[in-house]
Amino acid sequence: MRILPSSESIAVKIRARSSRVNTICETHIVLESRHCSIESFSEKDIDAAMELLADSDVRKYLGGGLSESQARIRLQQMAQPINHSIFPSRFLTVRKRETADFLGIVSICPWHSPWFSEYSFEFLPAHWGSGYAFEASCAVISHAFTHLGISSLLAETQTANVRSRTLLTRLGFKLERKLCRFGAEQSLYVLLQQAQESA
């Protein structure tokens, strides 16, 4: 089973700028796929991302849309330089390559246990079903395994969130278990680097 597309179907060009030789401490990420440009989230992205965090459909399974002040505070926190822990939080902006239109945000952050990294994604509803989330996720996951010192990724979503669960399965994540958190049943998925390499 192929977890990530072949290099022929999605060309990932990686330019990484780091303040240290150790790529685990990489501070700025720039990726390109066929239709998407993906770059570390920064203050210049805050205004474009406000709609994303306020959208009730996007955040239906995340506690609902945020107020303008809540969204701005959250986005300002996301734009701060990463800390140099073993698995620091990384938020990435996804835009259309041709038009630079804002599409969404993907992230790799410590899970509820700091020894595990969690992959997540949020895209504007206008772009759902267009393949952007899958394409961008493939590029980011490949980069995480190849350059960030990450050997496995977790993804947790409400079991009721069929759209997200379908995408995770398509990306190669396997359902590990179900648990109750935040007052709802959650599905926990895992993707191992070894599985990606053997696909």
Describe the overall structure.
The protein is of the alpha+beta class. Helix content is 26%, strand content 31%. The protein has a six-stranded antiparallel β-sheet with strand order 1-2-3-4-5-6, sandwiched between helices. It has a three-stranded antiparallel β-sheet with strand order 7-9-8. Strand 8 and strand 9 form a beta hairpin. Helix 1 crosses helix 2. The radius of gyration is 16 Å and the shape is globular.
**What integer is the average pLDDT?**
84
Taking the sheet with the most strands, its summary is: 6 strands, antiparallel
Order of helices and strands: EEEHHEEEHEHEEH
Share in β-strands: 25-35%
Ranges where pLDDT stays below 50 over 5 or more residues in a row are 1-24
Tell me the number of helical segments per DSSP (H or I, 4 or more residues long): 5
Radius of gyration: 16 Å
Tally the beta strands: 9
Q: Roughly how many Å apart are the termini?
A: 5 Å
Provide the spatial order of strands within the biggest beta sheet.
1-2-3-4-5-6
Helix content: 25-40%
Structural class: alpha+beta
Shape: globular
Tag the structure with descriptive keywords:
6-stranded antiparallel beta sheet, alpha+beta, 9 strands, 3-stranded antiparallel beta sheet, 5 helices, 199 residues, disordered N terminus
